[in-house]
């Protein structure tokens, strides 16, 4: 199970990086069009349409990574005061609810992409983009998200079955404040400073 989880984490990170590049490309396209409109006479370049496609694809490609790194937002005012076992149970419920929502999104997204592919529907813009072209990678992001939820759910239930609440929390729980600080420092390449122990102070 750990091998599958680590593979899921690596794949989700790779697509999150690609999603970030797509968002950067979208920003570049829009910026180029804004500057071009100031310097040249432009009627329509389609950069806003292309940027919207890139933004949608980049967003779904990042969903799995957010789940794996526990970067999603949850209301935890009461959660932090509950016993570890109760928190683990709530984590499972949260994963199940998220999975149901993700499956509903995937089902609707698949129907939409399939119908646009079969009928070869195009956007109602001067570019006349076949809608199934950007929707296919967008749909893949939803598939990756659902698979990540399933893997996280199996890992959490397996950990709970053997009484390993720490692993269950590290998979589906809410990040603590210290963990969030460590994550931010790590992203900046800064190591967290260890608080001096009483023996260190005596020295």
Structure description:
The chain has 203 residues and is an all-alpha fold. It has one domain. The protein has 7 helices and no strands. It has helices at residues 2-39, 47-68, 84-119, 132-161, 165-172, 177-187, 198-202. α3 (84-119) packs antiparallel against α4, α3 (84-119) packs parallel to α5 and α4 (132-161) runs antiparallel to α5. The longest helix is centred in the first third of the chain and has 38 residues, at 2-39. It is globular, with a radius of gyration of 22 Å. The protein starts with a helix and ends with a helix. The model is unreliable at 197-203 (pLDDT under 50).
Show the helix and strand layout.
Blueprint: H1 2-39, H2 47-68, H3 84-119, H4 132-161, H5 165-172, H6 177-187, H7 198-202
State the oligomer.
Answer: single chain
Question: Ends: how far apart?
Answer: 45 Å
How many domains, in number, for the residues? 1
Q: Strand pairing plus helix content: what structural class?
A: mainly alpha
Helix coverage percent of residues?
over 70%
Query: What characteristic shape results from the CA principal axes?
Result: globular
Number of helices: 7
pLDDT below 50 for ≥5 consecutive residues: which ranges?
197-203
- Estimate the mean pLDDT confidence: 84
Helix/strand order, N-terminal first: HHHHHHH
Which terms would index this structure?
single chain, 203 residues, mainly alpha, 74% helix
TL;DR of this structure?
The protein has 203 residues and is mainly α.
């Amino acid at each position: 199970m750990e091998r599958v989880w680590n593979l899921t984490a690596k794949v989700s990170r790779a697509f999150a990086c690609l999603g970030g590049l797509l968002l950067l490309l979208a920003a570049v396209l829009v910026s180029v069009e804004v500057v071009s409109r100031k310097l040249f006479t432009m009627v329509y370049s389609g950069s806003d349409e292309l940027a919207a496609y890139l933004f949608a694809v980049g967003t779904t490609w990042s969903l799995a990574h957010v789940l794996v790194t526990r970067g999603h937002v949850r209301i935890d005012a009461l959660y932090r005061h509950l016993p570890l076992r109760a928190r683990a149970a709530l984590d499972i419920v949260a994963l199940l609810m998220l999975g149901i929502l993700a499956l509903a999104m995937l089902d609707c997204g698949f129907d939409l992409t399939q119908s646009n592919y079969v009928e070869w529907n195009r956007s109602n813009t001067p570019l006349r983009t076949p809608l199934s072209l950007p929707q296919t990678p967008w749909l893949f992001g939803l598939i990756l998200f659902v698979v990540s939820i399933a893997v996280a759910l199996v890992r959490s239930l397996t950990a709970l079955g053997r009484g390993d609440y720490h692993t269950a929390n590290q998979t589906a729980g809410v990040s603590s404040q210290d963990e969030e600080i460590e994550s931010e420092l790590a992203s900046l390449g800064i190591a967290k400073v260890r608080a001096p122990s009483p023996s260190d102070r005596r020295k």
